[in-house]
Amino acid sequence: MGDRPRIKNEAQYDALRDQGNSKEKSARIANSPNAGKRGGEASNYEDRTKAELYEQAKALEIEGRSKLKKKDELISALRNH
């Protein structure tokens, strides 16, 4: 483990890798601002504003996010990332 960059939430990273996710995707999710939140503490996408969803998409570096004009398009992109 000494040769990979520091991961904020190691357990989440390992679980994501075990599920077959790439190293890059697993690290991005495990290092996200909500990585330490558990038990439904993170707010639902539907409860967030379009601006908040866009910022989350930006933080996750979702390609094509500037073309997503509707809230439900951003939600779909975040869920399928």
Description of the molecule:
The protein is mainly alpha-helical. The protein folds into two domains: 42 residues, no CATH class; 38 residues, no CATH class. The chain contains four helices and no strands. The radius of gyration is 14 Å and the shape is elongated.
List the helices and strands and how they pair.
Blueprint: H1 10-18, H2 23-30, H3 50-59, H4 71-79
Summarize the structure in short.
Residues 1-27 have a biased composition (Basic and acidic residues). It comes from Formosa undariae. This protein is an all-alpha fold and 81 residues long.
Keywords:
mainly alpha; single chain; 0% strand; Rho termination factor; DUF7218
Regions with little confidence, pLDDT below 50 for 5+ residues: none
User: Beta-strand percentage?
Assistant: under 5%
Distance between the termini: 25 Å
What is the domain total for the residues? 2
Mean pLDDT: 83
Q: What is the ordering of alpha helices and beta strands?
A: HHHH
Helix content: 40-55%
Radius of gyration, taken over Cα atoms and rounded to an integer in Å: 14 Å
Structural class label: mainly alpha
Number of strands: 0
Gross morphology? elongated
Largest beta-sheet characterization: none
The number of helical elements comes to 4
Organism: Formosa undariae
Region (Disordered): 1-47
Biased composition (Basic and acidic residues): 1-27
InterPro entries: DUF7218 (IPR055642)
